[in-house]
Amino acid sequence: MKGYLIDKDGTQYQLPELLSWDVCHGTGEPCDYFEVKTLYTAALLPKLGDAVRFKGTNDGATVFYGVVDEYQVSIDESGSTVSVNGRSLAALLMDNEVPKCMHYSMTKSSMLEKYVTPYGVTNVNDGTMPQVLMFSVRDGDSAWTVLKRYCLKSVHGSPRFDKTGKLYMGKRTGSSLNLNAEEKAVSVKLKDERYGIISQIIVTNRSTGGSYTLDNTEFTNRGGSSRRYLYTEKFDNVISGGTTVDTTFTGRYQIECSRSGKHCVEIIVNEQFPCFPDDTVTLKCTALAINQSCRVIKTHCWGDAVSAGTRITLEV
User: What pTM, to 2 d.p., does this model score?
Assistant: First the structure.
């Protein structure tokens, strides 16, 4: 892996050969992060002080682009090193609070103009999104919180930044690859967690008293029982093609969030950056009776003098 520091004018500086690296990608939250370490010389100091962005590459391809949060120089009897760490561009939105207000109608262009591009995020994936009516920005909201709420109400999705720093506001389809655990995996772990999964949610409109009930039959068929109540102001607040759509995703989203990451496989391979979140992996693991397509929800790639590899978390 190679690392580059970028200043506010866009000038790029390549760091000396990296001694170690840690790069973690998820599907939105918590924020993706990086940390790299290299040999330190006095000539590096002004470059470190001016750095606002970091780009990491592997075999010429960008594998991380984000914000520089911190650098730390260490000088002792074993030598001089410097470590640099930071987060994805989501940090630009997470770190900025926005004023409280109410929008009668929030469109994608308005969202970008008011809450995204002013904070330095300009590389956004194309795609249409329905407007959201009566969209509220609350006390203490960050620009990221506002964007996340808009994506949820508009397309029942979550915002995320990819490895190159491009913002995706809806669902994203990544690459596809095959993985035979018997051939490539250094270790395999299966996690099946029941705690926290919602079996039924009852969503009630505070104003009218109307309600609807959603069941997580997949969980109840396994004997699960965990009911939740959710109170909201409106059901119908998204317009698509001129027609108001019932946003039953309010409850569905809660159920999906409750079971996200509860049934997954964690695989460690010796390869560097073999895949990224939202990629689809066709996994074959005879020992766990798995032979199916799985979505990548997290990757953690590392390298140092002792070992190197990638930990891949798959939702199965």
Answer: 0.88
